[in-house]
Amino acid sequence: MAEALLGILLENVIPLVQREFAAFSGIKEKTEDLSHTLAFIKKVLDDAKEKQWSNPPIKIWLQRLKDATYVLDDVLDQLPTESSQHGWLSSFKPNNIMLRGKVGHELNEIVRRLDRIAEDKNKFLLREGVRERPTEVAEWRQTSPTIISPQVLGRDADKEKVVEFLLSPARNSEFLSVYPMVGLGGLGKTTLAQLVYHDERVSSHFNLKIWLCISETFNVRRILCSIVQSITKNECKVLELPVMEEKVKGLLQGKKFLLVLDDVWVKNQQLEFGLNEDKWDQLKSVLCCGSKGASILVSTRDKDVATIMGAYQTHDLSGLSEDDCWSLFRQRAFRPDKAEDEELVKIGKEIVSKCGGSPLAAKALGGLMRSRNTRNEWLEVKESSLWTLPNENHILPALRLSYFHLPPTLKQCFAFCAIFPKDESIKKQELIHLWMANGFISSRANLDVEEVGNMIWNELFQKSFFQDVEINDYSGDVSFKMHDLVHDLAQSITEKECMCLEEANHTDLPKNTHHIGFKCDEVTETPFRKGACEKTESLRTLYDLNWYAPRNASYFCPTNISLRVLCTYTSKFPSVENFSHLRYLGLCDLEIKTIPDSIYSLHKLEILKLMQCNELFSLPKHLTRLHNLRHLAIDGCDALSEMCPDIHKLYELKTLECIHCEFSKRT
Ligand SMILES: Nc1ncnc2c1ncn2[C@@H]1O[C@H](COP(=O)(O)OP(=O)(O)OP(=O)(O)O)[C@@H](O)[C@H]1O
Ligand SMILES: [Mg+2]
């Protein structure tokens, strides 16, 4: 992500610096220096990006560069927009003089910082010259918004074997039978489990089917709670273990159930909360209450799971055949309306042979090749040095390659998704709003920024970075997931830059964290201790993943003025006077009747969402002062009786969503 942001920022920043500061007496020279420094850095950027995978000092150098670029972007974002800057540079109004002085000082600082970084680049023998980039818009236009339902290839025999196990020996077994399916990441274990789960014979054989995704944390209390939730279809509070045990026993007593435990990880030195014998015994003692024939189907990358669970048989999943991998690759790589070029087919087959039978890799590579039409472009992928890099963090080479060849905007938009937890169902519209607010995407000729976001999302979907798409029948909302290996890729790219925090009470976040998603499981926990975000330089996103869900937690309001996105659960309206960069504000559970006037200082606000503010009586009177507002969503604000009268004067407003409000009931 570092490199992606850099590419975009440098491209925009150089002309901006030249334009904005041309007439800015006093620091004009400085800005010229700055634009030389940036141009200088830009020349070697491509080479640095490629070499960082195998050369850690270059990676650190890029990190420093990116951190400085974030700060530079903050400085520039304080400038008035082109339309409102008339007279700003020459105005003698005290406010303008002060702001000019402040910007001038900050600019001086950042130029010095960037100069030092530019000097250090000489240590790395980086080559100058810019690689040809795929043209972004042309590529997006080729995508279709249709969502293809995934086709499963080459797993008939595997499926029959698992179904047979569940239907015959297990049926006669007095004990709970466990059947682990073991295989490498991305090989298709979850997919096979889904095939079995939805098989008609399986559905009619069992009284009850439960599907749980476990992942790295094997928490018995939470698993029991999920079982209750799955059976009763109601929210279940995580209570003390003995209470949970009794509840589950009550529900499973005498039932012939099929429980799928997808993606189980074993405890080891790196993984503190994985499965171990004690936890298994604890869970098994509860599940044993089922009837004869009750079964557990497990998917895991780790053979030890079978030993821990005492399974007498495992299903070792092998890779797909080269023919099947080729079919998956081919469906994505070639357009249906065009004849396949024989030479490309030959190179394509050689690329597929490097996939090791992984359908995930075959799909990702197919998606990558779709926008490449020449022999040389195909050979470049086949012969890339990224295939042979040491496999750090188990990132599939095919995925890394596919990421590496994305255009910069797509790189950035994808890597940002590291703020979500693994296996999270993500709303497409919400993600596009987050991209917009962070300035990752912007409008183009004849295309609104939302449409550009939609195209980028489609492109990432086509390239298999996104999957498991679902469309809500009622609202039409599209949600999707990322495969866990794809999530690992995003995380390995962004490292500390984008983080997802799933535990409570964080203290001291790193200086170079810029985007945070957080999710607290326990409803009463506070995500951050006071001052936790103080050390972060240019924090852009603070996003509570459950910001709209009622809870008893104590409240949290940050003071980082660099924020572009703030979504949180809070009774008090945050002190936003200085949040001049904020584009997206989402607040839930405000205990106030009216919104304070400080909201008018959010000149750049584009997205405002208010949820469950039960006492809120009216919307800000002068909402039209937020003239950049594009999306306004109000949900569950029962007392709100009136829409703001001038709403029609918000000329940029694209969507207005009012759900469960007094006036929405009347109209
Ligand atoms: N037989 C298949 N045919 C077509 N696509 C497949 C097949 N098996 C898996 N896939 C696709 O490959 C990707 C990886 O599959 P899946 O999630 O089932 O892997 P997994 O083994 O469960 O990985 P992990 O160990 O990371 O959980 C998914 O996008 C899935 O849709
Ligand atoms: Mg899986």
Automatic annotation (TrEMBL):
InterPro entries per UniProt: Apaf_helical, LRR_dom_sf, LRR_R13L4/SHOC2-like, NB-ARC, P-loop_NTPase, Rx_N, WH-like_DNA-bd_sf, WHD_DRP
Domain Disease resistance R13L4/SHOC-2-like LRR: 571-658
Disease resistance N-terminal domain segment(s): 6-87
Alphabetic keyword roster: ATP-binding, Nucleotide-binding, Plant defense, Repeat
One record GO biological process: defense response
Signal peptide start-end: none
Occurrences of domain NB-ARC (ranges): 156-335
Domain Disease resistance protein winged helix, residue spans: 419-490
Record Pfam families: LRR_14 (PF23598), NB-ARC (PF00931), Rx_N (PF18052), WHD_DRP (PF23559)
GO molecular function, one term: ADP binding
Record protein name field: Disease resistance protein
Native organism: Arachis hypogaea
Source species taxonomy: Eukaryota, Viridiplantae, Streptophyta, Embryophyta, Tracheophyta
